[in-house]
Amino acid sequence: MADAAAVATGSTETRRVLIAADKFKGSLTAVQVAERVTAGLRRVAPGVQVEALPVADGGDGTVAAAVAGGFERREVRVTGPLGTEVTAAYALRGDTAVVEMAEASGLQLLPDGVFAPLTSSTYGSGELLLAALEAGARTIVFGVGGSATTDGGAGMLAALGARFLDTGGSPVAPGGGPLRDLATADLSGLDPRLADVDLVLASDVDNPLTGPKGAPAVYGPQKGATPDDVRALDAALAHFAVVLEKAVGPKAATYAQSPGAGAAGGIGYGALVGLGARFCPGIDVMLDVLGFAPALARADLVITGEGSLDEQTLHGKAPAGVAAAARTAGIPVVAVCGRLALSADALGAAGIQRAYPLTSVEPDVERCIAEAGPILEQVAERIAGDFLS
User: Fold this and answer.
1) How deeply is 184 buried, as exposed, middle or buried, from its count of CB atoms within 10 A (0-12, 13-18, 19+)?
2) Nearest CA-CA partner of 373 in 322, 338, 341, 335
3) C-alpha to C-alpha distances, 207 to 113, 228, 259, 265, 363, nearest whole angstrom
4) What is the predicted pLDDT for the residue at 5?
5) What angle (nearest 5°) sits at the alpha carbon of residue 218, between those of residues 289 and 142?
6) Each residue's pLDDT tens digit, 217-265
7) What three-state secondary structure class fits 192?
8) What pLDDT shows up at residue 389?
9) ∠ at Cα 8 (7, 9), nearest 5°?
10) In the chain, what are the domains?
11) Strand pairing of 333-340 and 354-357?
């Protein structure tokens, strides 16, 4: 391991760089970020040894990161958030699967300008989990984030065998809004294979199901929910938890207030109460699955990053997780980003020695978004000049 002080002063001994960055949402995938940073570093320091380990925190891009880390990509046709069929992918290596709910129930699957906050469903996410079960998965990392849905995971549970009925004995309609009509819940038909699976709920949020910090209030507006929709969804999910309490006991109420219950429109709640999932910060889970620790042991410098380094970064996002692990190991960290909204003190407290935003090269934000790849290469050249030459 190189001495951190030597790295900071640009010692020529620093030749082993680990790139562990998340995507620049809307511009570059995590894989593309690593490729562009590598190209920029090598133009200034041709002999640098670069290891790329694209990372994700459980949200959209999690399957892509797993595939880049050696998992096999599997595709399956599932029900999208609006009820139409879509192609979704999950990742498999041995008996471990990485399932990303956004692949089946994500905002990116909605047509431009179309939202369905009351009726979008997580049914396809349940079908994706079912596909992983059928492939022989015994450990499932269930990454949740980027959802179009606020149904408490009811659709997911229905796809896996649960039944949610109204007073007339008919299945309630898809989505969070119709849960107001729920009269009885029966989870006895859930796929029995779930009992033998270690299901890890990987998320970067710790919100409860309902209330001021719950899924509808905090994330509903991002999915097109009006203030009236937010109130309706909050009431419907609270009613959902009450009905589930009658079906499965007090744990239903306890889980409604548990960290992660409000993740991805409450799908975290469905996973906790119905599937026996255990909640873990998404980046910690993914770093473990991707083999970050041994890669870190081979590095003298870590480059992390994401599209925007801001206050949210400090609360469980990928760069914060990478930096925390690297700091524990005594490896210096710098970050690349499109936009920087953190002070030097905040970065330092997070374990990031220096940040390099695209705007430091190109002040025009629109150009940074449109030409993120070439500009990121120029940013990487600056990192190489500061740390590798």
Assistant:
1) middle
2) 338
3) 26, 21, 6, 10, 35
4) 45
5) 20
6) 999 999 999 999 999 999 999 999 999 999 999 999 999 999 999 999 9
7) helix
8) 82
9) 90
10) 4-53+291-387 (3.40.50.10350), 62-283 (3.90.1510.10)
11) parallel
